[in-house]
Specification:
single chain, 112 residues, 4 helices, flat
Length: 112
Protein backbone atom coordinates (compact mmCIF):
# COMPACT_ATOMS: atom_id res chain seq x y z
CA UNK A 1 0.00 0.00 0.00
CA UNK A 2 1.13 3.51 -0.72
CA UNK A 3 0.19 6.50 1.29
CA UNK A 4 0.63 10.00 0.15
CA UNK A 5 -0.04 13.54 1.09
CA UNK A 6 -0.15 16.63 -1.07
CA UNK A 7 3.00 18.70 -1.04
CA UNK A 8 1.01 21.51 0.60
CA UNK A 9 0.26 19.14 3.51
CA UNK A 10 3.93 18.17 3.78
CA UNK A 11 4.98 21.83 3.69
CA UNK A 12 2.45 22.73 6.42
CA UNK A 13 3.70 19.92 8.69
CA UNK A 14 7.33 21.01 8.20
CA UNK A 15 6.35 24.62 8.92
CA UNK A 16 4.46 23.60 12.09
CA UNK A 17 7.44 21.57 13.32
CA UNK A 18 9.76 24.51 12.62
CA UNK A 19 7.49 26.95 14.46
CA UNK A 20 7.29 24.60 17.43
CA UNK A 21 11.08 24.32 17.55
CA UNK A 22 11.70 28.05 17.08
CA UNK A 23 9.22 28.96 19.81
CA UNK A 24 11.38 27.19 22.40
CA UNK A 25 14.60 25.69 20.98
CA UNK A 26 16.13 25.06 24.40
CA UNK A 27 13.27 22.78 25.42
CA UNK A 28 12.06 21.27 22.16
CA UNK A 29 13.76 18.03 21.21
CA UNK A 30 13.06 16.37 17.89
CA UNK A 31 12.16 12.71 18.04
CA UNK A 32 14.73 10.61 16.19
CA UNK A 33 12.22 9.86 13.41
CA UNK A 34 9.06 11.69 12.35
CA UNK A 35 6.71 10.15 9.80
CA UNK A 36 3.92 11.86 7.88
CA UNK A 37 1.47 10.40 5.39
CA UNK A 38 -2.16 10.53 4.45
CA UNK A 39 -4.46 8.42 6.63
CA UNK A 40 -6.02 6.51 3.73
CA UNK A 41 -3.74 3.92 2.14
CA UNK A 42 -4.03 3.47 -1.63
CA UNK A 43 -2.29 1.09 -3.99
CA UNK A 44 -0.96 2.30 -7.32
CA UNK A 45 -3.84 0.39 -8.91
CA UNK A 46 -6.39 2.26 -6.76
CA UNK A 47 -4.73 5.56 -7.63
CA UNK A 48 -4.91 4.71 -11.34
CA UNK A 49 -8.64 3.93 -10.98
CA UNK A 50 -9.18 7.28 -9.25
CA UNK A 51 -7.33 9.10 -12.04
CA UNK A 52 -9.51 7.33 -14.59
CA UNK A 53 -12.59 8.45 -12.69
CA UNK A 54 -11.31 12.03 -12.33
CA UNK A 55 -10.38 12.33 -16.01
CA UNK A 56 -13.34 10.39 -17.30
CA UNK A 57 -11.19 7.85 -19.13
CA UNK A 58 -11.63 4.07 -19.26
CA UNK A 59 -9.75 1.91 -16.77
CA UNK A 60 -10.94 -1.53 -17.83
CA UNK A 61 -7.50 -2.25 -19.32
CA UNK A 62 -5.80 -1.88 -15.93
CA UNK A 63 -4.83 -5.09 -14.17
CA UNK A 64 -4.76 -5.36 -10.40
CA UNK A 65 -1.60 -7.06 -9.18
CA UNK A 66 -1.96 -7.92 -5.51
CA UNK A 67 0.44 -10.79 -5.14
CA UNK A 68 4.03 -10.21 -4.09
CA UNK A 69 6.51 -12.18 -6.16
CA UNK A 70 8.85 -13.72 -3.59
CA UNK A 71 11.45 -14.33 -6.30
CA UNK A 72 12.19 -10.67 -6.97
CA UNK A 73 15.49 -9.18 -5.84
CA UNK A 74 13.97 -6.27 -3.93
CA UNK A 75 11.24 -7.12 -1.42
CA UNK A 76 8.51 -4.54 -0.85
CA UNK A 77 6.35 -4.41 2.26
CA UNK A 78 2.66 -5.18 1.85
CA UNK A 79 1.70 -2.13 3.88
CA UNK A 80 3.97 0.91 3.83
CA UNK A 81 1.65 3.20 5.78
CA UNK A 82 3.57 5.44 8.15
CA UNK A 83 2.80 6.04 11.83
CA UNK A 84 2.10 9.73 12.50
CA UNK A 85 1.83 9.20 16.26
CA UNK A 86 4.99 11.19 17.12
CA UNK A 87 3.67 14.20 15.20
CA UNK A 88 0.36 13.97 17.06
CA UNK A 89 2.25 13.80 20.38
CA UNK A 90 3.96 17.06 19.40
CA UNK A 91 0.56 18.64 18.71
CA UNK A 92 1.13 18.82 14.95
CA UNK A 93 -1.95 18.72 12.71
CA UNK A 94 -1.65 15.58 10.58
CA UNK A 95 -4.75 16.26 8.50
CA UNK A 96 -4.51 15.98 4.73
CA UNK A 97 -6.50 17.09 1.73
CA UNK A 98 -8.73 14.54 0.02
CA UNK A 99 -6.83 12.75 -2.78
CA UNK A 100 -9.64 12.85 -5.34
CA UNK A 101 -10.72 16.41 -4.59
CA UNK A 102 -7.13 17.71 -4.77
CA UNK A 103 -6.38 16.03 -8.09
CA UNK A 104 -9.73 17.10 -9.56
CA UNK A 105 -8.96 20.71 -8.68
CA UNK A 106 -5.28 20.50 -9.76
CA UNK A 107 -6.08 18.93 -13.13
CA UNK A 108 -9.13 21.10 -13.68
CA UNK A 109 -10.93 17.86 -14.35
CA UNK A 110 -14.68 17.94 -14.15
CA UNK A 111 -16.77 15.16 -15.59
CA UNK A 112 -18.98 16.19 -18.46
Amino acid sequence: MLTGAATSDVARVILDISKKYLSNPEVFHFPEILHFSAPVPMTKYEMALKFGEILGVPTDHLVKVDKIDKGVTVQRPENAQLDVGKLRELGIDVGTVDFTAWWRRYLGAYRH
